[in-house]
Structures are given as structure tokens and as C-alpha cells.
Write a structure and sequence with these properties.
The complex is a heterodimer of chains A (130) and B (486). Chain A has 130 residues and is of the alpha+beta class. Chain A is 18% helix and 35% strand. Chain A has one domain (8-108): OB fold (Dihydrolipoamide Acetyltransferase, E2P) (Beta Barrel). Chain A contains 3 helices and 9 strands. In chain B, α5 packs parallel to α11, α6 (132-149) crosses α7 and α11 (329-365) crosses α13. In chain B, the strands form 3 sheets. A 7-stranded mixed β-sheet of chain B has the order 1-7-6-5-4-2-3, with helices on both faces. Chain B has a 3-stranded antiparallel β-sheet with strand order 10-12-11, covered by helices on one side. Chain B has 3 domains: 6-25 and 35-58, no CATH class; 80-341, Type I PLP-dependent aspartate aminotransferase-like (Major domain) (Aspartate Aminotransferase, domain 2); 352-473, Aspartate Aminotransferase, domain 1, CATH 3.90.1150. Classes of the chains: A alpha+beta (130), B alpha/beta (486). The A-B interface holds A 37, 39-40, 61, 63-65, 88-89 and B 413-414, 416, 470-471, 474-475.
């Protein structure tokens, strides 16, 4: 299972990659593996929408389950990954690159302090597996 | 596939009907309605009969074999239900008939309302909702209107335990509430500490499936109800699992404010493609004015010589109509028949046998499968369909393999709180012999998983279609069996 070091993670399995006051958000390799084959992605937000930390930004459906994706931090949506509508399998095959969900502008970068590092997230997953 | 589609069987010019020559002059259809071809299949009567008879033989049904689909109560539907529903006095009536000519139907509905009230402990029952999910929608809309009428619009939050039916969050969300999931504690009950943190003045209500989807009766149900009530919220009961409680406990007595019944589960009306559902809703006196109409009532009391005269009314503050006419009347007839045939002691016996069967099977199946919530269960139980030391075998493989042993697979991958869940509900209608045969099949599959895991990955082997590609089926949806040629 891949857990890139440069990213931050949430307890609900989103990752966030920060670049200045902008960030990209997706779901972790662990999350896609748990969901198994993803068959449908519905993005619940659009460009220029504002979201509060914890708001639903997408619903993901796999052959096993449906799962909500939440905003890891508050901010304004800059872009959504429209390719996922026709190619939801990218979330399985490439969760950290072409499987990104949204790009956003952060309201308050200090919210990032509440998120987990890659090491903490790996430890958290091991605990869940036990 | 052993049977072609009806379009593939079609032969140009073949037909199964012969209209008489018209005795009035024919008139052409207005041009805007004319089409080159509507491409209807062309078959003889015998072609059609064989096609659908063959299809019906490919299907697994509760009349053909054990159907342990957790959370669905796939009990046997007694044939007397069908006989009664076909009595001409019931079958040949129309909802637009004047009520004076259908007093028997109205009596039946009135009596069913009374019985459901007595069984559940609620003060008023409305029969119209079309199925369980619509019953839930009625409940959510009543909760909403109740708070609006109390000038309390800030109550926007509905709490849903993670062991609830999947329809509960869907219904709340559709009704415009904020859905807040509640975790389960280690024994599978609602986590009371987590509940307390949400009991504030934004709480609209809580939807509780009890027994829950782990098949467990919430040991703190009275505290849960009391906490929600003291915060000003209402408690909705998902009655889908009422079978386990029949004649033993009444949700109305526990303090629930609203509950739907699934007549197609608990009260043996056809289920799962066999017929429409039916989801009556019961409420306390305080909410009776909000129910959807029409509801049957006595318009004129009877006396020694004359029966009462029945009619309809719509409650004063009703949330509105949910369904055309009076609900699925044919299902009401079947549920009435079932209750009348069993009587109070018989209904209690159903609840007891459903719980006994589930516990018997749980004991046997858990010899080979991990049981994460190891408690006396109610009507169903959930085991893990996977083993840590056999990474290649999943719940799906076990479910598919069961078909080779002649059983319908149990519900799988639900509830989400159990890893690789297999959710098994035998119901009271299965004999010890059937339960033993099913337990033996589960044991045999556990052995196969150790000896030949790859064989399980390709199961089933004996069904008309082998392992289907579920990912392709979900990603590449095809809704038409032919595409217009233009």
C-alpha cells in the first residue's frame, strides 16, 4: 500500500497535497483498496463553491459500498476532476495522481495542523486492521 | 445464457392475437403520432408462455429453496394469502367505487389498522405508504412538520447509528436533514456517550433500527429514547426487523414516536420482485394529526342489527398524500389474512421461532466463521466471510459458492461495521433440517477455502450464468436491448 510522504491524511481516508495556499484532494490507496472496484463518482461541488471542513465533496460507489468524501479543510473550490465521470477506475489505479478529486484554495492553512502525517496515517491503518 | 431475450426470439410477422374486423370506419392516426416502427417483439402465445416459464425456472425463489437474505425476512408466503386475495368480492373491486358498495374492503382495512396498532403499541396507523422506504419518508416528513409547527426550525439534525438500514440516512438526507452517523459500542449497541454529545437544540430526531442490522436488540434502547426525548427530538423506529419482536415487545411501549411496518417482511406478503411492498406507518397520539390520508374510520356506529358504516378521513395537519388511492390493497388483504390465521399466540410463536432459528444457525455457522458480535441474536446474525490466513477468499466467493449448494446467498458486505460481512436471516418458516443443510454447506465451503481457495474464486459452477463481471455491469450500463436504427 502506498502512502506518499509529502501528503497529509484524514481519519476518513482523504489525502491533501498542499502547494502554497492551494491544495489537491483525493482518497488514499488504503481507501480505494477497501472499497474495491469503484464504478461511479459523483462530485458534489463545483468551481467557486465554498466548503467547510467536513462537508461532503463527493460520493464514491464501488461494487461493495458507497462512501462519502469530505473536505479535509475549509476553502474555495478551484477545479474538479471531470475525467472521473467517464473513468472512475482512475481512483483505483492511480489514487494520488490522475485520480485526484478537487483542487481548492485554503481559507486557513492552520487547519492542516489537525491532519495526520504519512507515518501517523500508516500507524492508524495498521491499528484498524488489527 | 440458456434463454434468449424476447427480442432475440422475435420473428417478423408472428403474432399471438387476432382482432375481429372493425365494425366502424377506420381513421388514420394524426401524422405527428405516426412512427416507422416501434419495434415490439413479435411472438406467438406459446413462444411467450415458454419464454417466461423458462425464465421463472432460472430464478431462485422462496418456494424453491432457502433464502437467508439478512434484513429482508424472506419467509414463506402462505398460499392461503393468495386464495383470499383472489376472492371475487375483494379482487373485483375498484377504488373509485362508492364506499357504500365496498364496506367489506373498508372493514378489512379498519381491522388491519386496529391489529397493527395493537401489535406495535402505537395509537394510530396509516396504511397507504407503498413500501418501507416510503414509510420512512412519511416519518421524516412528520418529524420535520412537527418541529416547524413548534416554531423550532433550527432542528435540522437526524442521528443514524452505523448499524441502521441503509435507507435511513438516504431518507433523512432526501428530506433535507443533516445526517449524523452514530458509532456502535463494543457490544453492537448505540454508543451512549457519542449520542449524548449530539443531544442539543439542533436535534430533530433519531432513526433506530431495532433489532439492528447486526441482529442485536439494543440493550440501552430505553435510555436512547429518553436521551433523544429530553433533548426535544423524536425517535423513529425502522420496523423492518419487527419479526423478531412479534408478541414479545411493542415499540410504542418502549417510547418510539413513529415506526413503519414492512407487510412484505413481517406479515408474509410477496417480496423481492413478487409483488409491490407495503409500508404502513404507526404513530403516537401526539403525531396522529400529521399522518398521510386517507385513513379508514367509522363514520356511523353500528347497533345490534347493523354493522358500522366505514369511510375515509384525512388528518387535520397531514403531511399530504403519499400514494394514489388507498395504498396497495392486495397486500393489505394478504397481511390481514396472515394475522387472522395466526392470532395473538401464533404471532408470538413466530417471533420466538424466528429468534430460536437464528440462534441455532448462528451457533453452527460460527464454528467455522468469525462472529464479531458474540451475543444472543434476534432474527439474524452477521459473520465475517473471510479468514486472515486465507487472503484470497472473500465474502463474495462464499456467497457465490452457496448457490452451488442450492441456497440463495445471504446479504453480503452489509452492514459496513463488519469486515466482509455475511448477514444471515433464516426466519421462522425454515425447518431444522433446512438449517442443518445450510450449516453443512457453510462448513463445506470453509473447508474448500482452506483446500482449494482458487476454486471458490470462480464459483458458482452449477448456475445458468457463472461468475458475472459485476464491475463491467456497473460501469457499462446498457438499458436497451436494441438501439433504434436511425
Amino acid at each position: 500500500m502506498e502512502t506518499p510522504k509529502a501528503l497529509k491524511y484524514t481519519k476518513t481516508d482523504e489525502w491533501i497535497k498542499v502547494d502554497g495556499d492551494e491544495a489537491t484532494v483525493g482518497i488514499s490507496d488504503y481507501a480505494q483498496d477497501q472499497l474495491s472496484d469503484i464504478v461511479y463518482v459523483e462530485l458534489l461541488v463545483d468551481e467557486d463553491d465554498t466548503v467547510t471542513k467536513g462537508d461532503g465533496i463527493a460520493t464514491i460507489e464501488s461494487v461493495k459500498a458507497a462512501a462519502d468524501v469530505n473536505a479535509p479543510v475549509s476553502g474555495t473550490i478551484l477545479a474538479i476532476n471531470e475525467d472521473l465521470e467517464d473513468a472512475p477506475e482512475k481512483l483505483n489505479s492511480d489514487p494520488y495522481q490522475s485520480g485526484w478529486l478537487i483542487k481548492m484554495k485554503l481559507d486557513d492553512p492552520s487547519e492542516l495542523d489537525d491532519l495526520m502525517s504519512a507515518e501517523d496515517y500508516e500507524a492508524y491503518n495498521e491499528e484498524r486492521e488489527a | 445464457m440458456t434463454e434468449q431475450t424476447i427480442y432475440e426470439l422475435s420473428q417478423p410477422g408472428r403474432k399471438g392475437f387476432a382482432f375481429p374486423e372493425p365494425d366502424v370506419p377506420s381513421t388514420p392516426l394524426p401524422q405527428e403520432f405516426e412512427r416507422e416502427s416501434v419495434r415490439l417483439p413479435e411472438l406467438s402465445e406459446l413462444d411467450v408462455i415458454r419464454h417466461f416459464t423458462n425464465l421463472s425456472h432460472l430464478n431462485h425463489s422462496v418456494d424453491g429453496g432457502f433464502y437467508p437474505l439478512g434484513s429482508c425476512t424472506m419467509k414463506y408466503n402462505p398460499k392461503i394469502n393468495e386464495a383470499v386475495a383472489r376472492l371475487p368480492g375483494l379482487a373485483n373491486t375498484h377504488p373509485l367505487q362508492p364506499i357504500v358498495s365496498v364496506q367489506g374492503n373498508l372493514y378489512l382495512m379498519y381491522q388491519l389498522q386496529e391489529w397493527l396498532q395493537e401489535i406495535s403499541g402505537f395509537d394510530k396507523v396509516c396504511l397507504t405508504p407503498a413500501a418501507g422506504a416510503q414509510g420512512e419518508l412519511v416519518g421524516a416528513l412528520i418529524i420535520k412538520k412537527y418541529h416547524q409547527d413548534n416554531n423550532d426550525p433550527k432542528r435540522v439534525k437526524i442521528l443514524i447509528p452505523d448499524s441502521a438500514h441503509g435507507t435511513n440516512p438516504a431518507t433523512s438526507s432526501m428530506s433535507g436533514f443533516d445526517v449524523v452517523p452514530l458509532p456502535s459500542d463494543a457490544r453492537g449497541n448505540v454508543d451512549l456517550e457519542a449520542l449524548k454529545t449530539h443531544c442539543d437544540d439542533t436535534l430533530a430526531g433519531l432513526m433506530l433500527t431495532n433489532p439492528n442490522t447486526l441482529g442485536l436488540f439494543d440493550e440501552h434502547v430505553e435510555q436512547v429514547v429518553q436521551l433523544v426525548h429530553s433533548a426535544g427530538g423524536l425517535v423513529y423506529g425502522d420496523g423492518a426487523n419487527l419479526n423478531a419482536l412479534l408478541g414479545i415487545i411493542r415499540p410504542g411501549d418502549v417510547g418510539f414516536d413513529i415506526m413503519h411496518f414492512n407487510l412484505h417482511k413481517t406479515f408474509s406478503t410477496p417480496h423481492g420482485g413478487g409483488g409491490p411492498g407495503s409500508g404502513p406507518v404507526g404513530v403516537t397520539q401526539a403525531l396522529a394529526d400529521y399522518l398521510p390520508g386517507p385513513i379508514v374510520t367509522i363514520i356511523e356506529d353500528g347497533d345490534e342489527e347493523n354493522p358500522p358504516f366505514y369511510g375515509f378521513y384525512t388528518p387535520e395537519k397531514t403531511i399530504g398524500r403519499m400514494k394514489a388511492f388507498y395504498g396497495h390493497f392486495g397486500m393489505l388483504v394478504r397481511a390481514y389474512t396472515y394475522i387472522a390465521m395466526h392470532g395473538p399466540e401464533g404471532l408470538r410463536d413466530i417471533g420466538e421461532k424466528a429468534v430460536l432459528n437464528a440462534n441455532y444457525l448462528m451457533k453452527k455457522v460460527s464454528e467455522d466463521y468469525y462472529l464479531p458480535y458474540d451475543r444472543t441474536c434476534m432474527h439474524e446474525f452477521v459473520v465475517e466471510g473471510a479468514w486472515k490466513d486465507i487472503p484470497g477468499v472473500h465474502a463474495l466467493d462464499i456467497a457465490k459458492r452457496l448457490m452451488d449448494y442450492g441456497f440463495h446467498p445471504p446479504t453480503n458486505y452489509f452492514p459496513l461495521v463488519v469486515h466482509e460481512a455475511l448477514m444471515i436471516e433464516p426466519t421462522e418458516t425454515e425447518s431444522k433440517q433446512t438449517l442443518d443443510a445450510f450449516a453443512a454447506a457453510m462448513k463445506a465451503i470453509a473447508k474448500e477455502a482452506r483446500e482449494d481457495p482458487e476454486m471458490l474464486n470462480k464459483a458458482p459452477y452449477t448456475t445458468p450464468l457463472r461468475r458475472c463481471d459485476e464491475v463491467k455491469a456497473a460501469r457499462d450500463l446498457v438499458f436497451c436491448c436494441w438501439v433504434p436504427e436511425e
